[in-house]
Specification:
- The chain is an alpha+beta fold.
- It folds into 2 domains: 144 residues, Jelly Rolls (Sandwich), CATH 2.60.120; 85 residues, Winged helix-like DNA-binding domain superfamily/Winged helix DNA-binding domain (Arc Repressor Mutant, subunit A, Orthogonal Bundle), CATH 1.10.10.10.
- 44% of the residues lie in helices and 21% in strands.
- The protein contains 9 helices and 11 strands.
- The strands form 3 sheets. The protein has a 4-stranded antiparallel sheet with strand order 1-8-3-6.
- The protein starts with a helix and ends in a 5-residue tail after the last helix.
- 29% of the residues are buried.
Length: 233
């Protein structure tokens, strides 16, 4: 388990670049926890007691209003950190976290997390970089929802989900299994389900994706073009 935690931490914006000894010391503070599909990890307004690192499964981070309308802003998956904001500022949670599938996470208690980064100058600097990264993500998401067509938002989301491996062999496509419903995808993109379905059809027509019942087969080059040039959709 320790080896797995170290591997996951080394790939995060916050912990990447640490010396092996520091990574090991950080990993030792994390504890495994499991959640069933549909189980709540925490609710908006709860105290921020832990930071979470996903090993397996999908966690929806969302906000909702008194009328029951909900906006998902992130689906946390393997290697993603979440819950750090409330743990850092000792303020209430800013969102709900719900397991979309069976989930295994590694979590670190808030005081242990504070000791980890406050006693390691290099990690204290990484905290600033990490929070800036979060701010840029939020800014990009707001810009996309407010200013970009659904097709562009969808192309950007798919590229982000594919990760860094955007170079399949010639003539091949990268498979992508969403792992969550089209309704969840609609909330992430800030659009209705019919509009998201139409956007998928538009990407298919442009040759950027090919849809099967359980996954998408993606052409990263075509998706990148659409993500930058909405007039080409």
């Amino acid at each position: 388990m320790l080896t797995k935690i170290i591997s996951l931490l080394s790939q995060t914006t916050l912990f990447s670049g640490l010396e092996a000894s520091d990574l090991t010391a950080c990993a030792l503070a994390f504890r495994e926890k499991r959640f069933a599909k549909g189980q709540t990890l925490f609710l908006r307004g709860d105290p921020g007691t832990h930071v979470y690192l996903v090993e397996t499964g999908l966690v929806r981070l969302a906000i909702s209003n008194a009328n029951g309308r909900r906006l998902s802003f992130q689906i946390a998956m393997e290697g993603d950190l979440f819950g750090e904001i409330a743990a850092l500022d000792n303020m209430p949670r800013t969102a709900d976290a719900t397991a979309l599938t069976a989930v295994t996470v590694y979590c670190v208690e808030r005081h242990a997390f504070a000791e980890i980064w406050s006693t390691r100058p290099v990690l204290a600097t990484r905290v600033v970089v990490f929070l800036c990264h979060r701010l840029r993500q939020a800014t990009n998401q707001i810009e996309s929802i407010a200013l970009q067509p659904v097709e562009v938002r969808l192309a950007r989301f798919i590229l982000s989900s594919l990760g860094d491996d955007h170079a399949p062999p010639p003539g091949k496509r990268l498979p992508m299994e969403l792992g969550f419903s089209q309704g969840e995808l609609s909330q992430l993109l800030g659009a209705t389900r019919p509009k998201v379905n139409a956007a998928i059809a538009s990407l298919e027509k442009a040759g950027a994706v090919r849809r099967t019942p359980d996954r998408l087969f993606c052409d990263p080059v075509a998706l990148a073009r659409i993500a930058q040039c909405p007039e080409e959709v």
